[in-house]
Design goal:
By secondary structure, the chain is an alpha+beta fold. Helices cover 33% and strands 21% of the residues. A 6-stranded mixed β-sheet has the order 12-11-10-13-14-15, with helices on both faces. The chain has a 5-stranded mixed β-sheet with strand order 2-9-8-4-6, with no helix packed on it. The radius of gyration is 54 Å and the shape is rod-shaped.
Length: 735
Amino acid sequence: MPAPKFLSGLPKPVLFGLYGAIGGLLGALLLGEPIMSALGPKQAQAAPPPAPEPRLAVSVSDRLQVYQGGTNKLLVQIVRDAFDDDVALRVDDLPPGLTARETVIPAGKTAGEIELRAALTTKAELGTEHKGLKVTASARPGGKVVTEATTFTLTPLVSAPPEADIVFVLDVTGSMQNQINGLKDGIVTFANALRAAKVDARFGCLAFRDLTQGEPSQILKFKGAQFTDDAVAFSNEVARLNARGGGDDPETSLEAIIEAAGYDFRKGATRSLVLITDAAPKTRGVSVQKTASTLGDKKIDLLHLVINSPGRAQYQEVQLGALGVPAEKGVDRGKEFDLAKTAGDSAAFTNVLLPEMTKAIVAAAEAKPAARPELAKQEIVKPELKTVKAVQSDQTYDRSSIGQLVLAVGAWTGSIAGLVCLFLLGGQTHYLRGGLPSVGGIVASLVGGIVAGAAGGAAGQGLFLLAPGNKELTIVFQVLSWALLGGLAGAGLSMFVPNLKTGYGLVGGALGGALGAGGYIVVTASAGAQLGRLAGGLALGLCIGLMVAVVETAFRRAWIEVRYGPREMVTVNLGAEPVKVGGDARACTVWARGAADIALRYFIRDGKVICTDILAREESAVSDGDTRTAGKVTIVVRTSTVAAPAPAPSPTPPAPSVQPAAKSTLDAVAPMPAPPAPVQPTKPIAVSPQSAPSARPSAPTAPPPPRATDACPTCGRKNPGRPGARYCVVCDQTY
């Protein structure tokens, strides 16, 4: 029986491919994976990027002016990165006559003020200009000192105060007459207070009602200009306004704010809008967000609100979003005043609201920052992780564990190759003899496969390490390493396949390993490393078994077909090593049920297929198609390139003699005695046509020369070894 019945009809390459696939899969599943888990290094994991270093950025006005005998406030803005602790501010290296009070920006805030004071002395004593005065911001997050500095220019002044342009956005609907009167009466006091604070102020006014009621806004003009520094002229123009119209609440105050933001402000002036209204805004035409965005685009510094409760939330949202950035505590975007305090008394507008507004405008004009601070872009440099990959895995391992990785890969491939060789040997034995291999064969195939696989795997991993980071080269080396593994396994398997040359086994195994690598790469790319390894073991065994059988078939010159039945047949290659057919499964290459222990022996000698019939004690050259039986099997000789033998002459009938009793077996150890020269044997042995006896007895000839001491006593073939331990492959005997 060449194989189990359900497999007996398969071609030999397919059958051996199945044997190899089973061995490879079981090797990967039962041995390979546990070995990789036990011996393999831990998968490399990238170290977490280092925590960013705490950083600080600071910005102040490029220039600041201070009056002799007066004070001014320097607005400082900061940005923290990776911490939120208090930040201390100080001004270093101030010239004589100038002092600065240190301050702290608390955690959670991004702006603060440093108050500078100039002594009451002459401008000459203070100097005309002090460049490069340094503002230092410092913090200690986690005990680590972080500092950042910037510079500004300080100029002591006796004149040329900072500039402020102020636009009153005044609601002049029917309920606002008291506020109109308050602005008219208080503007002179307001202007005088700004002048006393050394602020160069100009005033403008936009009067609005309700655009939806057909009531357009009115821009007050002063000699054709939108602004005036003449408080009396401003008061006279406001006096012309009368509270009327407006319809029902709310009013189109957002449109008025946007229109006022488009006034012709001076380039260096602090830009302030003062909204005075008792109504909520209409938001159908213009949104709160658009209004805030417009104020940011127009670089409006302050939006003061003189309002009642209706619409407070919308107006505050416009105020806080005026700079186009999220609201931050500590950054003054304007004050809010309660309009109800002036509802019945216009003097309250003059005596309460305008003085508070004066302080805010003066502070903003004196300490207007040049720009918000910006942190330089910080690039987080991830630590470099030096890794390697395994030839049978897409996982990465730390480069320091290369030795452990090579050991694990060698053990993995050795376990798979060992089981592949064991299953192929078992398949080969069952294919030829219908049984299982001997204990010695099992040990030899298993150990040989493990050694070959371990060597191939370790060498393959070494090749694979030569291509770090190159995808194409990685695939090439991966295929080469698997081909090396398969070639060593195929070469080892050739020791158990009759007449399979080691070179052919090497080629077949290498082709199988390369094909197995292709299967592994495809599966790994779609299913991951673990399934890829299992598929790789299966593909490796399948392709090695398949290709070894294919190569065995492709390069054979002569073989025998052993037919067990109409659909059961095995083929065995012929070569110098004899192929024995008989009933003794241990002694024979091919088991034949019902035959003598050793019935037939086939081998190639001098380019001819030689068949020895052990029972008949005949040896003859046979040609393609020669058919014989042994027990219940039929043996047919097949040739491809082996030369056909010359036709043998008809044998001469033997002289009468006593036929010895037939034996069931041939004693292969005892040499056949040479017959006496003058007596012909009872039945001639047809060694070759030239050696066949002639039809007539010939005259006695001289005895042949003595044989060499290392020659077989039966056939004369020379064999190496010691006397008593020499083995003749032709006669299958030891002498």
